[in-house]
Each structure stands twice: as C-alpha cells, then as structure tokens.
## 1
Amino acid sequence: MHPFAYVEPKTVKEAVAALSKYGDKARPLAGGTDLLVQTRAGRFNLDAVVNLKKIPELMSVKLDANGLEVGAAVPCYRVYEDPKVSAAFPGLIDAASLIGGIQIQSRASMGGNLCNSSPSADATCPMIVHNGVAVIAGPKGTRKVAIEEFCTGPGKNALAAGEFVVTLQFPKPSPTFGAAYERFIPRNEMDIAVVGVASSVTLDAAGKTIKNARIALAAVGPIPIYAVAASEWLKGKPANEASIAQAAAMAKAAARPITDMRGTIEQRKHLVEVLARRTLTKAIERARGK
C-alpha cells in the first residue's frame, strides 16, 4: 500500500465529487471490512478512500407505511437489533446476523456486502427475495437498480464510474409474507457459504395458497441467482410439502456451480435443493405467524 488521501464528505454531492476527482483510484468506504483487506492484498491501487459514514442518508434506518429504507453504510447490528425491522423483514435479519462475527457486524453493512459483489455474499439473496432496490448516486444523478440485477460478475456490479449506493429500499410486506435465509459452511472457521438459499412467500388470507414467491441462490454461479422459473411456478400452488419439493427441485436445476476447495458441483446442487426446502418451509411458517 502507498499513502492515500482520506476523504470524509458530509453530503451525497460531496461524495460524488470526491469519487469523480480521483476516478478509478478511489473507493468508497462503508464498513471497510472488505475494502481494507483487499487494498492490503493489492487488489486496489488507491489514491483516495472516501468514507461514506458521515453522510446522514447512508447511516439512517427508516421504517414507515411504505416499507424499509436502510442506508448503505448502516452496520448490520443496527438492522437486526431493531425489533420492528426484525418482525417485518425476517430474511434480512437471517443474513445480517450471519455476516462475520459481532465485531464484523459492528462495522460491516448490507450495502457494502452487496457492492463487494461476491457470489457467496450473505445479504444479496435475502435482499432479492424481499424485492429490494438499490438507490444509486453518481455524476449523472440518482437511479434505482433492482437487487437481482445489481451484480454482473464476481466482484463486478452495475455501478458506473463515480457512483455509489446511497440506500437500500424494500416495500412493506403483506401480513401473510414470510422469508428465510440459510447457508451451508464447511466449518465455523471458514465463514464463506458453500451454498446459500433465500426464499420468500406471500400466502392468501387463509394461509393455504401461495400468491407470490421468490427464491434466490448464493455461491452456485458467477452472480447470485434469482431462480425465476421456480419462483413463478409456485404462484397459485398450495402451500404444502409437495409444492415445496417441486420448487426445490426446480431451484436445483437453476444452479450453475463449480467445483472448488469448498465443495463439488454435485454437493452444491444437492445443498441447493435441501436449503430451498428448508427456507420455503420456514418462510411459509413465518407467513402463517409462527
């Protein structure tokens, strides 16, 4: 690492100006738990680090009649320690409480986890099944990108030069909505998912029929995978074990894993089916108020 400037903008406009000034030699800092490690490892050759934690919008959590808005630099613990957020957005809580240990959760943010754009990121798939949208600021103004369209490759995403994520927005869920996220890791000392699956369902008033569903897969492709076919198939189906089993099999077919030091193709596909069944079952239970 060589010496670099440390910039602390107080507004979104100032942050955009700083990132534009230094170009590809600058990186925004939300929590820094990935950025600092990657910089020391030589992935980035930086002239500036732009700390986003002094910007109010990036550090706020708002829950109202329209839904939830989480600043991109809000540390994970502030999300899962909010009882109202925990009750309304269970899949997000599953993820926020899994990202590293308590020390990491005191710094790391779901926005940073998304922007790091790892295929195995714990926050991305739960945000997909909660219909999340990233609000992005940059030199050309503000725009929105659906979370399932944000990652474009390993470590790559939809952010253009000078852009950064300001907030993450999630619509207010229906009273019969439920979501869940689970992952498989090889051991506690290697806190990277071999496979992760997030599922959400919205049931009818009787709690017997699935009105809407979303399933997303982590660590089984170059980007987090929104399993569209399995999700669409569940619409109108009874909320029972047979429907869950069929959707899980379809989710398995959507996986595109590789074999590496953490798992084989066959193991990962099997785990997708297992975790899809578990998360769909839990999502339905939560939608029924259990």
Note: The chain has three domains: 5-49, 58-171, 191-287.
## 2
Amino acid sequence: MKNDKRNFQANSLWALPSAGLLLCLTVAPLVMLLIFSFMNRNMFAGQPWPGWTLNNLTRMLESQTFWPLLGKSLLTAAKVTIICIIAAYPAAWAIAKVVKAKHRGILMMMVILPFFTSQLLLIYAMMNLIQSGGIIMTALEALGIQAESMLYTNKATILVLVYEYLPYMILCLYSSMESISDNLVHASHILGANRFKTFVNIIFPMSVPGLLSGILLVLVPVAGSFVEPGLVGGSNGMMVGSIINTQYKDNLNMGYGAMLSCVLLLVLCLIMAVISFAAKQAQKRIGGDV
C-alpha cells in the first residue's frame, strides 16, 4: 500500500506541468470570459476600473442582430460539417484500407499539407480560383459554360470553410478506420452483406469516436469564424463571429463581446452534447461498442 501511494504521488508530480498548462490555457480564459461579460467598461482601453452590470445580458437578449446571425452561423457550420463528413468518409477509408501501406504516408502528407500554409494564403488562393478571370471561371468559359463568379456569396464562404476544415475530418476518421480489422469487413461480405450494410453495421459504429472528434474540430471553429465571411462572403457574409470581433476590435466593448462569446460557447456545448448522445444511441442500436 505504501509503495502504491508513493507511485501515485510520483505520477501526480509528473502530471503537474500538464495540469498547470491546462489551467492557464483553458480554464482561466473561460473564467475570465465569464467575468468580463458582466463588466460595464473595457478595462484594457485606458478607462477606470469597470463596474458590474446586467446590461450586456439584457442587450444580448433584446438584440435584433445577434440571434439571426447565430442561426445563420449554426446553419453554415452544419452545412460545412455535413459536406466534410460526406467527402471525408470515402477519402479516409481509401487511405486506411484501399491504398497500399507504403503509399499511405504520402497521401497523409498531402492531406496535412495545407496545415503548413498560412490560413490567409489558403483563403486568397481559393479566392483567385473562384473569382471572375480565375482559373476555374476561365476553364469553364473555355468549355463554353457561362458561370457567374462565386466570390462574395454565402456559397463562397461555405466552399472556403470546407476547403480549410476537410483535412481535420479526414484525419479524425482515418485514425478510427485504421484500427478496424480487415477480418471484420471480409466476414461481413462472406456472410452476404453488401457494401452499404457493411458500412452501417461495422464501419460506421467503429468510426463514431473519430466522427465525433471530427465534428468537434469542424463545427465549433466554423460556427465562430469571422475571417472567411469577411473576405469571401461579401456584404451579406457576416456571421456571429464577425459581430463578436467588431465588439472587441472596433467598438472596444469587451463586456458585450464577452457576453456574446459565452452564449455562443454555451450553445455549441449543448449542440455537441446532443450530437454525442445521438451518436452513442445510434451506435448502441446498430451494435457497436460505446
């Protein structure tokens, strides 16, 4: 018992740096965000020490701008996430099970290659492709297809966001699919199941952990994005992240911006809880392990 206690204490000491880092970079910012949301002035704008108020909460509840933008942002995030899931499943399965093992490293490098590039460069590269006179529009005109530029539309925003976050979904699904035994798939085919039934009964249940991770890494940042809507969305491209950024950057209204951020964070947490619960229930009914 004494040795076990000493080992536990030693392991606890090794965990202190990670726990401290988690506290400083995760817990502390969330607590500060909650505190700032009830301040009546910006403490970093050279103003006197702020007081406490509920006006930020009242203003948020009565806002005619925040709630429509929140709905638009969640809808856009849902569309981007669904598109990423549909596109990532065959790609991840192909890399994990179809391609030869010696080629997987090269394909995975191609998937993560955008991570080595600046986010702004990725956005501007896509803008050059879809604008009038760009490569895609020029190619379509050369084929005799008259197509309008997608730039400065909601479709352009969705396209750029899918382009940016698709690799996250592929990586998450690949990590789950790689661990699926080939014998299970072969046994399913031998027992008479077609590809769709094999996917529903074996591949999907066993890939749910990676799917949930991918949804988390795509849905949350997309819902709060403001750079892409501002650059490629045009005058109607504003999302909820845009109004939060405006409160911090232009209006210097830290309290109201923090309140909007807290509400967005709360809504996203509730959505992720519902998605996680629904995925686990589906996994149970299909027969996968939870």
Note: The CA atoms of residues 132 and 148 lie 7 Å apart.
## 3
Amino acid sequence: MMQSWAMRLIAANCVVFVLTMIQPSISTPLAFSPFLILERPWTLITYMFVHDGTFHLLFNMLGLYFFGPRLEEEMGGRDFLLLYFLSGIAGGLLSFLTPQVWIIGASGAVYGIFFGYAHFWPRERILIWGIIPVEARYLVVIMTALSLFGGFTGGSNIAHFAHLGGFLGGYLYLRFRDMSVRNRMRKIEMPAISAGRSDIERWKAIDKSTLHEVNRVELERILAKLDREGLEKLTPQEHLFLERFSRR
C-alpha cells in the first residue's frame, strides 16, 4: 500500500526537527513573522515544519497521525494536502492579530485537519486524555472557545490565533470543496446510462485491503446493492465512490 501524504508530512516534520536540533540557527529563517511577510513570504509555508521542543512536535504529529490518514482516504491526497497547507497558511495570516510574535509549528495545519475530521465524522467520539469521550463536533467548539480565550487574554507562548486560523482555513476550504462536489454531482449522468460490464468488473476488483474500515464497509454496501437491485438503482454519489476508488 502506497504511503499516505499524512505519513510523509509527519516524516518531513521530524526531519526538520532533527536538523534544527543539530543546527538551531536555521530555525529563524524558517519561522514566520507577520512584520516580515513581504521580505520572507516563504515562511508562511516553512513555519509549519519548525517546532519548539519535543513535546511541541509530538503533540502536533500525534494529531496528524490519528486524524490524517482516515481523512486523506476520504478526501483524496490532493484535497488533503490543500486542506493541510491552506489551514496552515490561514493560521499564519490570522496571526497578524498579534504581529509582534514569531510563529512556528504545524498546529494551524493540524487544527484544519481535525476540523476536516469533525466535518466528515461529527459524532465520532474522541477520548480526551484517553478517558473522556467527546464528540468531534463539540470538541471543535471547545477548542475554538479555548483559543479565543487564550488569544485575547494572552499570557502564554501558544499561538492561539494560528489555531483559530487553522479552523477558519479548514472551514473555508471545505465549504468551497463541498460546493464544487455538489456542482460536479449535478453534471453526472446516472450510472445506468454510462456504465457497462467492464465498469462493474473494475469496481468489484477494488482491493479492499487497501481501504480504511469505513470505506471498506461502504464499498461492500454499494456492491451488495449493485448485485441485489441492479446498476440503475445506484445513485450518482455511489457511482462516484466506486469510480474514485477503482481508479486509484
């Protein structure tokens, strides 16, 4: 199975962390300062890969590890990367509310990934500290409230506005993506008109072992419906699902 972009991002963050530990002077050219954006525009990207200590790196990478792969499988690699980087960029831009600070870390991008996770699975229960179950949609609300409070009260070295920017960037990108998907769906012909025997054989040949459990269950449901009710009963959404995974 091909390695996911989520795991590649984790590896890239770890590599940069090791390099900055060996040579701390390279951290400053990669960090983002709102005051210097015109002089150093690349730092809107590079700041996401710099972390201030092992715990800072570990917290962000655990979030990317737990929520990233499933979300990437649902969205596809291209959309996942766009969500990640646009959320991180939005986190940097919202940091203009505190222009005197330097921003580092993948938190904004990871917050965008978590927002995406809550978007697709709002009722999924997340265990806080491994013991307290909270639905993903409510956790977004709690995290937003904490970031707002921390951002306007100050008193810590946490980039609260970058976190809020991550949520905002994730929300805006997913709204745009949902609108684009709905527009495409309106143009899709019914599967009974466009699909044939070779398409059915291709759909049934999808390797289930490469799929996340959620997508594997959905694939089995659609294929069972296809056998039971026939091609003409598939919805455009189900047809798109089969096409996406059969052409990966």
Note: The chain has two domains: 5-184, 191-246.
